[in-house]
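Quick one before lunch.
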Amino acid sequence: MPRDATTDPDPRALPVQVPLVTEPLGLLGSLRVARENVLGLIPDLATRQPIVSGRTGKRWHMVMDPECNRRILRDNLENYPKSEVTKLILEPAIGDSLFIAEGEHWLWQRRAAAPVFSARNIRNLAPIMTAAAERAAARLAAHAARPGRAANLYDEMVAATFEVISDVTFSGDEGFDRLAVHRAIDNYIAETAKVSLLDILGAPRWVPRPGRLMSRRVLGEMKRMADGAIEARRKAGPRPVPDLLDLLLEGEDPKSARRMTTPELRDNLLTFIVAGHETTALTLAWSLYLLAFDARVQDRARAEAQAVLGGRAATAADAERLPFLRQVIDEALRLYPPAAFLSRTARGPDRLCGREVRAGDTVMLPIYALHRHHLLWRDPHAFDPGRFADRQAIDRYAFLPFGDGPRICIGAAFAMMEATIILATLVARFRFRPVPGRDPRPVLILTLRPEGGVWLTVEPAPAPPPDPPPAQRAA
Ligand code: HEM
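Model of the protoporphyrin IX containing FE complex:
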């Protein structure tokens, strides 16, 4: 049968990717490339070899081998604290909170926060996700009413996930300007991301980072606002459906019975906002890009979502009845992992994949390259959600969108629930098509973003096929 160019993807076509470098770059070359896109620092070799090492100011190793990843993230965790770079960038904004703390100070915070993200609490918070999905659908319906007009689905998804994270962190109206906090965080990240390459390439701490100095004042204001909101909540008591602030206020380290002080609570809540909102928006935006890229996959995802949801928005109870949609999200996380680059600083000597690691070496896990590694994935650049149909067949340490080991993302189940609820609701109601010539470009700054946005045309979805007559159904 001839290919229908409007609906069938060209079997040779691949979704957008970044050409990886094939020549060594040197320090200046690296600086030039990294200023524009950190992904450009990853050599093509990293998708073919288990480890690639070099020296740009500092000795570094990029590790793409499941066994070695397990060693870094789990078996020899003590030797691989988060890198100086990660701390330099994030500490001014989120303090010594869960994301960057080490040792005992990390452990007690993790123990205190773990119950906050239990399956039961996520289910309790899910109606907030459903409400955000409904509002996103209402906004898209306005776009769909103007045929031919494209919408930037990245912006739409940032709006939706911001609603969720602000409703689940500071859900009250304690005179706290959530939008101002959002802006302060976004500005801080944009500023620091620009200068972060100084850190990535090992420039010493005393080299001034202009963006960081500039945003200190804004950060100070943001923290004062958050502290005020926390104090107000302490006085007012928990909300009828406890939000993350209530849960964290109640949170206690089961070992030491220690509870968080106001600055510790604030740093962790801001951490949840920083770590949880843009990453989930990216997951959704890249999933929608991929669904528009392959209309057949989109039709199948829609058929599943319509069968489960009918006309209503998705809820927590629907999540496990949408296995194909979950495969689409996993495949989006494989091709465009929001946290595309994890980095650690070796505390002492070690061996990784037979290579010598010395104290002070930077050890990177370029998740983007791991997920596109030729030894680990068949046809690695192709969009094929079916590869996740049998999860057992996938090596746990070859697929690391949320990291792994004790420092695995604490919000992974929360994020998957949110992404599933929003994506199912949207794909059941709308059809998304790419806008020729407006493909996004994957750019890694702190996260893997679609530069230029994800522009798609949005139309009302075709209605589901009518149920077959009873006689046919019995047959
Ligand atoms: C799709 C969305 C998300 C992705 C891809 C993602 C990815 C990650 C990754 C890769 C790590 C490990 C970093 C490392 O080992 O260096 C991490 C840690 C973390 N994430 Fe997420 N994340 C997501 C959503 C969330 C959400 C929704 C929250 C909270 C509401 C959250 C909070 C955290 C925290 C607190 C940590 C640090 C945990 C620790 O060190 O104990 N993340 N995330």
